[in-house]
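Supplementary Text 2. Reproducibility record for the structural model of the 446-residue chain.

All settings were left at their defaults, and a single model was retained for analysis rather than an ensemble. We include the record here because the model underlies the residue-level annotations in Supplementary Table 4.
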Amino acid sequence: MYCGDETGAVIGDVGSHTARFGYGGEDCPKVVINSAAYRRCTDDHITGKTEGKRQKVKQYNYSAPVSLLNLPPEDCFGPDEVGFVPIYSLNSNQKSSPMEDVDMEAYAALWEYAFNSLSVRGRKKHTIGSHHEESPTDGPIDHPILSSIDQDHGQKHNAAILEVLFESLSAPAAYLAPSATLSAFAFGRQSALIVDVGHSGTRVTPVLQGYTLKFGSAVSERGGMWLGRAQEKILGCSDLWSEAPCSDGVLPRYILRSKNNELRRLKLLKENSFHQFTVHQVMEEMATGFHVAPLEENSSLVSDLFTAKMKDEDVLIQEDEAEDDGSVYILPDGTRVDIGSTKTGQDLCHLPELLFAESLPTCLSNGSDTDTAAMPIHKLVQHSLSQILDADIRKELISNVILTGSSSLFTGMDKRLSSELTRILPNIYKNRLRKFSANVVEQEGI
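Retained model, structure tokens:
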């Protein structure tokens, strides 16, 4: 898809939490935004007839990107709803919802913003720069489009994406490719075992000669969102709301920046996915903070973690009870979390260990430990390989394991996964693991 600077394809990857866009051949995406859009109700209405009666139909206008630091714009609020629309809503199993629940107009708004940011429609961008004031915001597109898709989405969903790309965005050419296949091709591999530790969970997908093997795919809920919810439970801040926002516990930034006369809007946001996005942002910042220790290659550490009764310890301390000497983590609302002298605080320093924990504490378990939805990452890889009957194919896949996804960037993640796979797999299988870094590709061979 890459044929030089002037004919490179525009590549888009719209995930459950973030969307990434850029030109083919570049090292990293140039546009990274949240996978959501604002929805505003316009003043225009369409008047039609339903069973002989005239009826008004609302017209909506979608725009991106969204901000998780402040309240949505005033014109996004209705009498009983908030115009904040995530691209993919998640069900209780942490999987993407069916095609009917995906707002394709919001999906198109993300692409439109990426086109404007990358000056896709500006033919002079290679000579006068991408932010020239005369760059057009509409018109034909000179670049083909490559969009990554989830292999679980059916043909109806893929047809809806192509309809948006061709009709709404006027793409001259478009191609849909499974994200697992693109990850394998990024390393120059036609066959590989893709371990995608993302926001909504972990997915292991075998890729053989460029084709994804659905019968060998395995999915677990353990991912970025799952770690954030586990961290909420550890802090004891899962329920932050009563009739109005309270000052106790962890609060997202939009509540801290709101005014007293905006209580009605805050109550509407509580029932909207906007609140979940903002709380997860705070949890994500804490899970990747300075206090988080690298993953250890020795798995014996997991059995010693998260064993204390968290309700017996006061991990949230007052501002005057400790000094900022590196043993406390300060939340956006000013609450200080003691991570140095309490057992619970030390457990928070090893939060990524939960991705490999074979048995979870009662407070974090959902009662489905025997299901693949609750499997740790290394067990999920083992389960995926067990679905492949050909021994030669299994050997080829385990020698080309590719670790990707935002939640795979914890320090020591690749070495820990290689160590666990070496421990549980037969000796005849020698795993070789490669991983993506933020901007650099790293390789680890064992």
